[in-house]
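Memo to structure team: turn this sequence into structure tokens by end of day. - J.P.
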Amino acid sequence: MIIITITIIIIIIIIITITIIIIIMIIITTIITITITIITIITIIIIIITITIIIIIITIIIIKSKVNIQPLLLASCLFFAVFGSVRGANGTVPLVLWHGMGDSCCNPLSMGAVKKMVEIKIPGIYVLSLEIGKTVVEDTENGFFMNVNDQVSLVCDTLARDPQLKEGYNAMGFSQGGQFLRAVAQRCPSPPMRNLISIGGQHQGVYGLPNCPGQSSHICDWIRKMLNSGAYTGLVQNHLVQAQYWHDPLNEELYRNHSLFLADINQERVLNESYKKNLQALRSFVMVKFLRDSMVEPIDSEWFGFYKPGQAKETETLQESVLYKEDRLGLQALDKAGKLVFLSSDGDHLQFTDAWFNANILPYLH
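Reply from structure team:
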């Protein structure tokens, strides 16, 4: 009887400890993202008191009635197994990052800084910043020259082999990393992606390359020449990343027939039901548009809009597009279910403040 009582007490202590940790994390997150109200504090206190009273009552009943507690112990084990699998050992959801053109996984001024910021905001979180290649230099080069479909396959394999991600993860892609991670969501449902956050991604592609990041201007000058001279030729499509999401509204048929990447994931050629099903499994698909973007043309692509067919001046929203109306990708269904989120930042490409990130993005990382 003493052993049983001690076992029950240990279980109770563990449950109370986990509960307190969760509540503390909620309070910390709330402090970061919004102002704590008196109602929030009172609610948390009531939850703590209620849980404590219930646990004490159950313990007294069990001890006095000498009930067989094996079912209780089994239930407790199942509870911890399920809890651990859903939220991870420390109650956080892993995060996968994919950088944009001209960047790398670990640049301390960009992706490295984002990774560190998230780790500070969400203590204990596992953050995987994808490196496409064996070195940072190779990672950067692959953002220009490695076949996108091969990159997506490599990432799918990396995620599938990572034990920390087996129960699910959130994904956040920057610039072209946004549409690349959407391809991962559509093609590789295991491990499951929960929330997809696209920061300035170009989901209907680009028709123009007006600016370049960092020190890559000479590369971008060459890219412009390649795109203008023959974006849909086999050589350019296979070896130039930006050509694989180049969307020429003046030559829609050429785009549909020869785009190796974007036309496929946007269901422009054939309808792949698994793409639609897998994308609809997301809890949220968050798209961020930068209102003063000087790199992406048209910026509407960051919200899945694009030029109206046959010209390159007037744009249409996602909701006005054939892709949405025919619901070939499941975006209309996602929208009606409240899973599509359209956010904006009043800045240039990928320019946002910590305060904006905390208020708008951080809630989707829990």
